[in-house]
Write a structure and sequence with these properties.
Chains A, B: It holds the Pfam family AsnC_trans_reg. Chains A, B: One of its GO terms (cellular component) is cytosol. The structure is a homodimer. By secondary structure, chain A is an alpha+beta fold. Helices cover 37% and strands 32% of the residues of chain A. Chain A is built from five helices and five strands. In chain A, helix 1 packs across helix 2 and helix 2 (20-27) packs across helix 3. The two termini of chain A are 18 Å apart. Chains A and B meet through helix 1, strand 1, helix 4, strand 3 and strand 4 of A and helix 1, strand 1, helix 4, strand 3 and strand 4 of B. Strand 3 of chain A pairs antiparallel with strand 5 of chain B, so a sheet runs across the interface. The structure holds a DNA duplex.
Chain lengths: 146, 146
DNA sequence: AGTATCACTCAATAAGCTTGCGTTGCGCTT
DNA sequence: AAGCGCAACGCAAGCTTATTGAGTGATACT
């Protein structure tokens, strides 16, 4: 995991479908050398995989919200994960410091869909109370250090 | 934009480096047909591009926080965007309903780095007050409808 | 000094991309 | 009802890229 690896990763974050030759040219290596490093990074779990960046609006996922989740008593983080993971509208979930126990990031087709997703979230047994903050507009949404 | 396109997108979200032939096999099309559809989706902006999924821990971006931003008076969303965009630690920013004006998602190497990023965020001229919520653990982080 | 290890380049083959071309299905006009 | 134009498809050819093996040089350890 040296500076060469980091530059390769940075290239892949910018364009995950770039050819190994292109990446190699950018970082000063041959194509096979790049492939071997990428394979190793995947093996080590530093690279988790490759994904497409989709315009959520275009696909009809235009509405999102951040939800503070307050639980009944002490709930282990693992159980929180298991509780929210089945909801397809959940795109992110984090345990946090402060008064709330967790923050859940919801993405839905519209306000009505968001409402039903929230209802299902509140239906999770250990969840006591939720405080929702609806997103009005997405200003920025990018990978780190791109 | 039909169901075939959606299935192609779903394949690409799962693995952005899959070959057109693989995708075609999964959705019942030939490789050239898939390529033409992908090109069109890119043209239309429905597909924004392809990126690598990196383990943030491994790259030394293990600490993150959500920050409620409160502005001085009325600030247009565009100016908020311009204000936070230069900070590399900002991975997401949203204007929201409720008492706060915006929510900013920060990602930093460690607590100290997070602190300096917060200071720089608070240094943005129109920002009045911030309320930070530090992430203790990431439970879930996934693309929608994967 | 010798040697093991590691990562690289080069080269060759296999796989995949990309484009032109002919075909088909569908809606619209004549 | 036949003809036309459009849009999308599959096939095939030529070209590019991926992938593997083999050889080489640098580094570090014995």
């Amino acid at each position: 995991m040296d500076t060469l690896d980091q530059r390769i990763i940075s290239q892949l974050v910018t364009d995950a479908r770039a050819s190994y030759a292109e990446i190699g040219h950018a970082v000063g290596l041959s194509a096979p050398a790049v492939k071997r490093r990428v394979d190793k990074l995947l093996d080590m779990g530093i690279l988790r995989g490759f994904t497409a960046v989709v315009d959520p609006e275009a696909l009809g996922w235009g509405t999102e919200a951040f939800v503070e989740v307050h639980c009944h008593g002490n709930v282990p983080t693992q159980r929180i994960r298991e509780g929210v993971e089945p909801l397809p509208e959940v795109v992110g979930a984090y345990t946090v410091s402060g008064p709330a126990d967790a923050i859940v990031h919801l993405r839905a087709a519209d306000i009505h869909h968001l409402e039903t997703a929230l209802e299902r979230l509140r239906g999770v047994e250990f969840i006591n109370r939720t405080v929702s903050t609806v997103v009005l507009s997405r200003l920025l949404d990018r990978p780190p250090q791109a």
